[in-house]
Amino acid sequence: MRKRKQYKILENITITQIADQGIGIGRIEGKVIMAENTIPGDVIDLQITKGKSDYAIGYAAKFHEYSKLRVIPFCEHFGVCGGCTWQNVSYETQLEFKTQLVQDAFRRIGKIESLEILPVLSAPFDKYYRNKLEFTFTNSGYVAGRFSRDEIIEKKPALGFHVRKEFAHVFDIKHCYLQPYPSNEIRLALKAYATVHQLSFYDLRNQSGYLRNVIVKNTLTNGLMVILVVAENKPDLLIPLLQHLSSTFPEITSLYYCINQKNNDSTYDQEMILFAGDKFITEQIDNIKYNLGPKSFFQTNITQAVNLYHIALEYADLKKEDIVYDFYTGLGSIALLAAAHCKKVIGVESVEAAVEDAKMNAEANNINNCTFIYGDMAKVFDNDFINTYGKANVVITDPPRVGMHRDVCLKLLELEPEKIVYVSCNPVTQARDIQILSDKYEVIKLQPVDMFPQTYHVENVALLHLKES
Fold it and tell me: Which distant-in-sequence residues (6+ apart) come within 8 Å of 206 by Cβ?
């Protein structure tokens, strides 16, 4: 058999900057060194896992010196959990890192050297900021450390998150700092009830057991939705559990359950059954109310989302006669806010359920100048689309992390709208797309926005103007 290549260890490398996905960067022997779980100021020995002539990727086999930027993580689950991976540096330092990430992306990929990038807009809260979390039940909670094959480990039920980089394992959460009250309390109450009544937790390997997942959603208007996902239709077990949950937490305004008998946790193709309370929870931004169902996607940091959308609309600077395209519109979050300031908005989205939500919310808010289209952006956005809905003066686009399809960028160059407002959760793909658009567009402003404190993720809003011919 072919032997696996044995990579050597590079010694005494000083990490000098942060790169995409929060990876530490250093340089030695003419190589660029990329080391996960490191920050500027760390001095390490790198165990190479992938190496080329000009770069090496790996992990810290040894720390000779820890960066002075490091602080003590506030969560006991840090390192095991895949979330909040930057809580070992102060929030102020996180913001500096995120500004650097945007600067690097636009200099390296966007080929923009001279544009001033505004400092990251900090979040009002760096903890308890999420409005949605999903927890997973397991009959065999993760135990840190390595054990021999012959060692018998007692299986203990757990309710928590998947272990970082080990999706087959789930660890038990004692306290999570991501979502406000009563998220932790609901999770702990569910686990306690299930333990006392001997309800089986799901076996992720054998695809057996009863309790699978629980999803908790909250809104600033005091809506609280809980969705319990079970693997079998057993009303004798389910009804008492839901009644206990409802009576213990009168704050719950929408209580759903879902019977998922598939081998994966996705529930978007499953029926959501209302057990108690309202069909929707409601969120509000300015004078627009959004009705959110159990499958609705909305920004998970709503307080900061308000700031993000306001920046996007400020950059758009809409006029009453403007025709606006809102690409990757979701449930129309930005489109519905923009409608009052322009002639009409045409939103395009590839998730059919989101389009239905957008239409429902337009009707609920008495907005009649928004049209929402279901379809693949790269296929929908063609000459027939433009002829049908009119040429846009302004395009607002908020694509997923992979960015826009190249064909969409090229079609925008044909369309030549006066302004493009590009909202992105990934500055790397955003810079790539803007480089394509640079044939006819110049970047006027860049405003990073921190939607996810304690992580390396950063949103960025770019304003592009059509160049004068």
Answer: none
> Measuring CA to CA, how many Å separate 45 from each of 128, 192, 262?
36, 44, 44
3-state secondary structure of 333: helix
Q: Are 131 and 302 in contact (CB under 8 A)?
A: yes
What is the set of active-site residues? 425
Question: CA quadruple 128, 130, 134, 136: dihedral positive or negative?
Answer: negative
Mean pLDDT on 335-346: 98
Provide the pLDDT for residue 410.
98
Q: How far apart are the first and last CA of the chain?
A: 63
pLDDT in tens, 77-127: 998 998 999 999 999 999 999 999 999 999 999 998 778 889 999 999 999
Q: Residue 12: beta bridge partners?
A: none
DSSP element (H, E) containing 404: none
The CA-based diameter of the chain, rounded to the nearest angstrom, is: 74
Predicted local distance difference test score (pLDDT) of residue 151: 46
Q: Return the amino acid letter for 92.
A: E
Asked if 184 contacts 130 with a C-beta cutoff of 8 angstroms, the reply is no
Distance, CA of 329 to CA of 353 (rounded, Å):
12
Beta strands in 102-221 (DSSP E): 132-138, 158-163, 166-172, 211-218
CB-side neighbour CA atoms (13 Å) of 223: 24
Predicted pLDDT at 149: 41
Nearest Cα to 182, choosing from 210, 151, 217? Answer: 217
Strand partners, 224: 218
pLDDT score of 72 more than 80 = yes
